[in-house]
Design brief:
Elements (H helix, E strand, L loop, with lengths): L5 H12 L9 H13 L3 E5 L5 E5 L7 E7 L13 E3 L2 E3 L3 H21 L6 E7 L9 H8 L7 E7 L6 E6 L1 E10 L3 E2 L9 H13 L9 E10 L5 E2 L2 E10 L2 H25 L8 E10 L2 E2 L5 H12 L5 E5 L4 H5 L4 E4 L4 E3 L7 E3 L2 H19 L4
Parallel strand pairs: 3-6, 3-7, 7-17, 8-16
Antiparallel strand pairs: 1-2, 2-6, 4-5, 5-19, 8-15, 9-13, 9-14, 10-12, 11-13, 18-19
Helix pairs in contact: 1-3, 5-6, 7-9
Length: 383
């Protein structure tokens, strides 16, 4: 059934890819996907308060629900050309593989189940969610699990994200992100020389972060990633800022890194105020959280992992379990069985303007079949 509808799935990819879905502006694509879910005859088709769209495929059991999700948003800003270019079986466009292919693949799963008359014991809630990328901070799935009306019935969660089927994400890398703004009176670079300089405080803070330990097990990282501020080359700035990304596989290690970083910022400010004159005012700092993705893990012994591993292996892949930062972080952190599975086919250059996927039918169908088999095994087939 997947083979019969493969060409339609490819056209769905093109249609959805060419509807821009920049961060915090997924409305047009969400509306199109909502219409597609409705067209497929799902029940309870709706859009929630944060913009997620979803519909329920009713099972034969007592209303237990598994979620099959793909994210609507891309990393690309408004105005990016998202026209799909075809070269043989390859499709090129920003966001075509991450995660637009997955949206179309989930619709193909629906059509295949309906055409084959497959009934599952659990209900399957198909979701197109917002806010997975960047500063979206997983807001769509966070709402689904913390405030959404289905939250108390969800027993397992799949995010279908990017083509790679052999890579089963069972661990969620947690992250903390901050925008740190240093302020001071400022002044002429020559005439006011000797006054406190917020750039020096920021530099001290950045170097303090650079010196913090980042173990490889559990894998932990830190990065000063975006910098800004100042008014002129010949002026002591009155404000500068930096954005910082802290990550770890371990919630405890992430908390340790966060605490040491925040202490280092305060120490950097104190050092600058001690080093130079504060007669016009001292350096102050504002620390604003801009991202908080919880760490989590679904154990290798969990049924969802065992079934996914078996299905992927049965289709000729060498499955491997990995950590990543995906929508699955949220349910993992809540102790709900959750993994990331692939949409099939091949792809590359994700998050670049030359992002591509290969929709060659043989490899595409092999990967799709493995992921569908995983979903059906967890949902339970009705005899």
């Amino acid at each position: 059934m997947l083979e019969r509808e493969h060409d339609r799935m490819v056209e769905d990819i093109v249609t959805l890819t060419e509807i821009p879905a920049p961060p915090f502006a997924e409305e047009a694509r969400a509306a199109a996907y909502l219409a597609m879910l409705r067209e497929h005859g799902l029940e309870e088709v709706e859009q929630d308060a944060v913009g997620n769209v979803m519909g329920r495929r009713r099972g034969t059991g007592n209303g237990a629900t598994i979620v099959v999700a793909a994210h609507l948003d891309t990393v690309f800003p408004a105005g990016t050309d998202v026209t799909v270019r075809r070269e043989g079986t390859r499709l090129f466009a920003p966001g075509v593989g991450d995660d637009t292919r997955s949206l179309a693949v989930n619709l193909a799963f629906l059509r295949a189940m309906d055409a084959a008359g497959i009934r599952t014991r659990a209900d399957i809630l198909f979701v197109g969610d917002v806010g997975e990328e960047g500063l979206g901070d997983l807001r769509g799935v966070r709402h689904l699990f913390l405030e959404g009306r289905h939250r108390d019935r969800i027993q397992a969660f799949f995010t279908v994200d990017s083509p790679e089927v052999d890579r089963i994400v069972t661990g969620g890398i947690g992250s903390k992100r901050f925008r740190v703004t240093f302020r001071a009176p400022g002044g002429h670079s020559f005439a006011a020389f000797g006054l406190v300089n917020p750039s020096y405080a920021m530099a001290r803070a950045a170097l303090t972060l650079a010196d913090l330990s980042a173990p490889t097990d559990p894998h932990t990282t830190h990065c000063v990633s975006v910098l800004g501020g100042g008014t002129s080359v010949n002026a002591i700035p009155n404000a500068v800022w930096m954005e910082v990304d802290l990550r770890s596989q371990s919630a405890a290690e992430l908390a340790r890194l966060e605490a040491e970083f925040l202490a280092g910022v305060e120490a950097a400010v104190a050092a600058e105020n001690a080093a130079r004159s504060t007669r016009e005012g001292a350096v102050t700092v504002e620390i604003a959280p801009i991202g908080d993705r919880p760490a989590g893990h679904t154990p290798a012994s969990a049924d969802i992992v065992q079934l996914a591993t078996a299905a992927v292996a049965a289709h000729g892949y060498a499955p491997r379990q990995e950590y990543s930062s995906t929508d699955a972080n949220i349910p993992m952190s809540l102790g709900i069985p959750a993994i990331k599975i692939g949409s099939g086919g091949r792809g590359g250059r994700a998050h670049s303007l030359e992002e591509w996927i290969d929709v060659e039918k043989g490899e595409s169908l092999r990967g799709m079949s493995a992921s569908l088999a995983t979903i059906l095994a967890v949902a339970g087939l009705e005899a």
